[in-house]
# Entry
Amino acid sequence: MILLIPLTFLGFLKTYFNQIPTFEENITPYIHIHAIIASVWILMLIVQPILVRNRKYKLHKKIGKISYLLFPLLILSFIPQMIRIINSDYPNFLFFPLADSLLLILFYSLAIYHRRNMPKHMRYMIGTAIVFLGPTIGRIGPLMLGLSENVTQNSQYGLIYIILIGLIILDRKHLKNYQPYLIILTTWIIHQITFNLIF
# Structure
């Protein structure tokens, strides 16, 4: 999860961070709001497991309750981007924010449903973290490595599969319940099939 910080920075270096402080190129207030909310969410994903590891359960729960407000704001912050894409020359790109939102809602809902079952809760929250690999790698590939959108996206799926299969193997080795990772893996397979059908 800590790797999300440098990956996010690299992914949005040319399109966002390099424009500080003037933000002259197509940066609307809505993009700033989305960036702030997403950054706070990523920070929360990093802090929460550290609190659990250090047995700061009360603080973990308090921050977790903040997510009940923060998460809907995160999802709502995708809407201006969706509207902009719908009105653009590339409406099929709506797939990305829409699919990301659906996955985030699914994994977060499952994490909250299993909030009293820490192992399942943790695994579904990891699922929400993996969703953020999409927007970051999706920009690193074309903007920094010169890869096509198709190659970048399918490379991203490969990385996600490696991560999830590695976590499944680790859970099997330690005789833990890896079912959440299987559910997450299945959703990403559907995600990849849908992407390749659309694009």
Observations:
- DSSP finds nine helices and no strands in the chain.
- Residues 4-198 form one domain.
- The chain has a mean pLDDT of 88.
- The radius of gyration is 17 Å.
